[in-house]
Amino acid sequence: MPLSAEVRPADLSPADEAFAARLRERLPPSAFREATEAELTEPRGRFRGDGLLVLPGSTAEVATVLALCHEARVPVVPRGGGTGLVGGQIMPPGGPRPVILGLERMARIRSIHPEENVLVAEAGATLASVQEAAPGPGGSFPFRWPPRDRRGSAGSSPPMRGEPRFCAGAMRAPSASGSRP
Q1: Which stretches of sequence are listed as region Disordered (predicted)?
Q2: What angle do CA 47, 52, 53 make, to 5 degrees?
Q3: I need a labelling partner for 42 at 20 to 30 A (CA). Which of 80, 93, 111, 176 fits?
Q4: What is the pTM of this model?
Q5: Which region among 64-73, 86-95, 126-135, 150-159 has the lowest average model confidence (pLDDT)?
Q6: Which of 69, 60, 73 is nearest to 122 (CA)?
Q7: What mean pLDDT is reported for the chain?
């Protein structure tokens, strides 16, 4: 089915044990752990989802997961720092069991360019690590959401899009294949 076609839950397959075994053949053991209750429950406690938590450690591993999910028609729910407050990070009940694509292991500061006031961080980097590594004298990453050591930088992006300081030095993230925009 082409990517532009409408996809209905009935068209999708669950992330069952057979699919999990396929992923385990291609990814290291560190890419798997049981999902916690916090990762499966909507923050207000209104509903609970299910899913196979997969924690890639590189863009190559993300690409592997996404390729296998696409091939098998398994839904994917991306998970950043868990800062969403309205349940968008939880697959609605009644749908096929998704892969929860957790980005917490992708936490490196990839590069720092003080002359341009640019820092490139992976999606799982905490705000604390980004703030500590911010380039140059007076360099900063201006957002202060507690607890700074628990939230991924990917979760910081949506509220910052309209911020003038953010737009002036807009971040560019590599795609799942590792290429740059």
Answers
A1: 131-181
A2: 95
A3: 176
A4: 0.72
A5: 150-159
A6: 60
A7: 78
